[in-house]
Design a protein that fits this description.
With 72 residues, the chain is mainly α. It has a single domain, classed as Recoverin, domain 1, CATH 1.10.238.10. 15% of the residues are buried. Pfam families: EF-hand_1, EF-hand_5.
Amino acid sequence: MELNQWVDELFEVFDEDKDGVINRSEFVELIDCLLQDKGIRMCETIFNRFDKNHDNSISKDELREMVIDLAL
């Protein structure tokens, strides 16, 4: 599976309210899933790092950047 397809699928799963962004509570679930044992304490730092426009949500482009940076 290519990166863009993987990000699209992640985004669809974790954008639970289907509003086109991942809010903080959805982000916590995403990070918990991706990082598992590393804990939720990292969520705030990671969220702030990748919420580039500081709108308190993660866009698909911001998620793509996060996945590239953290997972690859």
